């Protein structure tokens, strides 16, 4: 059948909209996974047992199962509970929760790695434990953890392609729409790959800037 | 027509890292069986010079000749590799940080190169290893692993490893600088033994006492040049150059508790000896 | 939790688990081979090899695995590559994980202390000999744990082939969710099996890692 890239320009607008949606999903899920990660980490380390154990269990579950399976669970499971969410929201929640769990592991490590002396110093000044955590330990841990979390964010971008399977019109699905009309999968998937690669490079550049800015205040 | 050549002949050695000139036109020779110590402040280029002798860090200018053969770094890759590997088998090197192979036992550390490069059988290699390890006093730890040894023990094994290749020349790059003080003596003893057995040795060191007691000639380097060289009695007691005096003054002030009177008396006694 | 349903359908999930295991093993093997080749290429003397290695790693790590899979399976025929879904899954995912493993391997190799390579060279060993006898043995010990992380991720990554209708665990879960409308139960079944596979593999890796520890 051969290759014919001339079919692509006609669908460029669809594809570009798909790129925008991909970026939107990635950013929303990234934010969710960042703050969710901090929340889970704090609960896993410091909360009373009835909060800590469920969170730990949930984390164990989500780290041991594929993202795609989790997306199915969330999308169809919510419907079963009577909550009918648009695919976009289900996708963001799925991606966000999945990566929140991984981020929380990183953050827990970073919190524990913050020098014990920091907590001691804060306490001797009269701070309570939660104040010391909030004002001294966690800010430092968060700063230390930015580089590895940055890596997770980039993985999130690539995994965002999976939400196409539950019907979110991001880049992958948009490509499939174009393929449905032109029967030229190679061309459109190749173009999609290029766009993902470019967005990836962009994200890496953004991450590097964020890393630099947050490590400046040493 | 074979003219008598020097065992180690360094001619106009020059080494630059970009704009930084670490070695500036150094020429020096070493005779067979001679023990030479190179001393000097950090940054003087003494390690760089040592490492140029077996081409670990190639010179940017000048030549190195070992026992009549020049180290030729301009050969095409394959030939260069064969040439330099053959040359290196004749030159043993001992490092400041030992560089023992952690995944091999003491025995295997010592036998690996002879078996691989000289085709020795397991039995022959083991015999050689036992000989060398006995020589350095580490025979009973032959089946230990480096992680189970102290610093001094590791360095002695490193010396045995180098000796197992039966080199003609031994290079020591600050062999005891990384050791705790009480472990330095055991390594010095091994080096003294080697010296007594007439191994040609070039020793880069900070230990003036040891250098004075074991070497035939001391070379003082500073900022990439040889400032002064001569027998230890001359260089240490009666240096001619101001820079040498400055260096020794600083160094002696740090390491010796001799007061000025004692030092003067010592010098006086020795010049009397020399005059006899 | 509808236990009756679970008991009725679990045999299908067990069958699917076998497929997941097959996919995992094959993609990991392919990944290890590609990874080793790419790592070697990136450290080669020849600039062309270095570039090829770097491009492979960059492209396969810089684009989604799902797209790579679709490109190979759906787009392959256009350039003369006809693979069935299982084959496409193995090759596509294998190439993908190989890029990540290449980086893992390279990282382990460069972390081996340079002083030992120097020592080996001063004894007269060639670059290749020094690499084989000194660097590689140690790098291989170092890379077991991080490769285990790659492998762990890959087991979960096999789920992607559900999107091209390979009947493995995730596909089966989706299928039964579609027909029974019981997502939690199906997630539970598939989830338990995935976690089982991952845990057993993880223990195996830990065991291997411990065994090669130096005294």
TrEMBL record, chain C:
It comes from the Bacteria. Pfam families: BPD_transp_1 (PF00528). It is found in: Cell inner membrane; Cell membrane. GO terms for cellular component: ATP-binding cassette (ABC) transporter complex. It is a multi-pass membrane protein. CDD domains: TM_PBP2 (cd06261). GO terms for molecular function: transmembrane transporter activity. The chain crosses the membrane at residues 12-39, 51-73, 79-102, 147-167, 187-208. InterPro entries: AA_ABC_transptr_permease_3TM, ArtM/GltK/GlnP/TcyL/YhdX-like, MetI-like, MetI-like_sf. Signal peptide: none annotated. GO terms for biological process: amino acid transport. The keyword Transport applies. Keywords: Amino-acid transport, Cell membrane, Membrane, Transmembrane, Transmembrane helix, Transport. Part of the binding-protein-dependent transport system for glutamine; probably responsible for the translocation of the substrate across the membrane. PANTHER family: GLUTAMINE TRANSPORT SYSTEM PERMEASE PROTEIN GLNP, MEMBRANE COMPONENT OF AMINO ACID ABC TRANSPORTER. This is Amino acid ABC transporter permease. It comes from Celeribacter baekdonensis B30. The lineage of its organism: Bacteria, Pseudomonadati, Pseudomonadota, Alphaproteobacteria, Rhodobacterales.
């Amino acid at each position: 059948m051969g290759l014919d890239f001339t079919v692509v320009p006609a669908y460029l607008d669809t594809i570009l909209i798909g790129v925008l949606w991909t970026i939107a999903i990635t950013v929303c899920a990234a934010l969710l996974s960042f703050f969710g990660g901090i929340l889970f980490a704090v609960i896993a380390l410091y909360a009373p047992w009835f909060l800590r154990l469920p969170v730990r269990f949930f984390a164990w579950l989500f780290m041991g199962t594929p993202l795609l399976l989790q997306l199915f669970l969330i999308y169809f499971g919510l419907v079963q509970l009577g909550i009918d969410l648009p695919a976009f929201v289900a996708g963001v929640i799925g991606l966000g929760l999945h990566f929140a769990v991984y981020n929380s592991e990183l953050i827990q490590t970073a919190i524990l790695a913050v020098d014990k002396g920091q907590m001691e110093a804060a306490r001797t000044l009269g701070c309570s434990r939660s104040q010391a955590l909030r004002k001294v330990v966690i800010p430092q841990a968060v700063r230390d953890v930015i580089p590895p979390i940055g890596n997770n964010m980039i993985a999130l971008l690539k995994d965002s392609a999976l939400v196409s399977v539950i019907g979110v019109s991001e880049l992958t699905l948009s490509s499939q729409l174009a393929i449905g009309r032109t029967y030229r999968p190679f061309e459109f998937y190749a173009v999609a790959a290029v766009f993902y690669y470019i967005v990836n490079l962009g994200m890496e550049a953004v991450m590097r800037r964020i890393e630099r800015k947050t490590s400046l205040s040493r | 027509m074979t003219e008598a050549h020097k065992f180690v002949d360094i001619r106009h050695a020059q080494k630059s890292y970009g704009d930084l000139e670490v070695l500036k036109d150094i020429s020096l020779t070493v005779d067979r069986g001679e023990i030479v110590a190179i001393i000097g402040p950090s940054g003087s280029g003494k390690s760089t010079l040592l490492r140029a002798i077996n081409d670990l860090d190639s010179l940017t200018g000048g030549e190195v000749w070992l026992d009549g053969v020049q180290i030729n770094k301009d050969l095409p890759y394959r030939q260069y590799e064969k040439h330099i590997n053959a040359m290196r088998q004749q030159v043993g090197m001992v490092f400041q940080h030992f560089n023992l192979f952690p995944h091999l036992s003491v025995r295997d550390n010592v036998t690996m190169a002879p078996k691989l490069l000289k085709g020795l059988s397991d039995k022959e290699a083991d015999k050689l290893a036992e000989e060398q390890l006995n020589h350095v006093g580490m025979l009973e730890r032959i089946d230990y692993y480096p992680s189970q040894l102290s610093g001094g023990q590791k360095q002695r094994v490193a010396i045995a490893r180098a000796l197992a290749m039966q080199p003609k020349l031994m290079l020591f790059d600050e062999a005891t600088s990384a050791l705790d003080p009480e472990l330095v003596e055991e390594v010095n003893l091994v080096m003294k033994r080697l010296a007594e057995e007439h191994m040609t040795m070039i020793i880069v060191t900070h230990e003036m006492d040891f250098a004075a007691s074991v070497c035939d000639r001391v070379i003082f380097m500073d900022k990439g040049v040889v400032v002064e060289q001569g027998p230890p009695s001359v260089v240490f007691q009666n240096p001619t150059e101001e820079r040498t005096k400055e260096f020794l003054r600083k160094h002696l002030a740090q390491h010796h508790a001799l007061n000025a009177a004692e030092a003067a008396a010592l010098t006086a006694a020795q010049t009397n000896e020399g005059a006899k | 939790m509808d236990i009756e349903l679970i008991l009725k359908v679990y045999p299908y999930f067990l069958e699917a688990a076998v497929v997941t295991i097959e996919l995992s093993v094959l993609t990991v093997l392919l990944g290890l081979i590609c990874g080793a080749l790419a790592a070697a290429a990136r450290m080669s003397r020849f600039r062309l090899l270095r570039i090829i290695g770097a491009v492979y790693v960059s492209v396969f790590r810089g684009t989604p695995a799902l797209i790579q899979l679709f490109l190979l399976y759906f787009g392959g025929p256009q350039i003369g590559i006809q693979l069935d879904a299982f084959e496409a899954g193995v090759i596509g995912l294998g190439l993908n994980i190989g890029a990540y493993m290449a980086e893992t391997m390279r990282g382990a190799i460069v972390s081996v202390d340079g002083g030992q390579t120097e020592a080996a060279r001063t004894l007269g060993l060639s670059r290749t000999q020094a690499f084989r006898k000194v660097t590689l043995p140690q790098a291989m010990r170092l890379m077991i744990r991080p490769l285990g992380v790659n492998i762990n991720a890959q087991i979960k990554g096999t789920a992607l082939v559900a999107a091209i209708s390979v009947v493995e665990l995730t596909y089966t879960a989706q299928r039964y969710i579609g027909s029974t409308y019981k997502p939690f139960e199906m997630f539970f079944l598939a989830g338990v099996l995935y976690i089982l596979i991952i845990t057993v593999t993880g223990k195996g890796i830990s065991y291997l890692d411990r065994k090669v520890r130096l005294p």
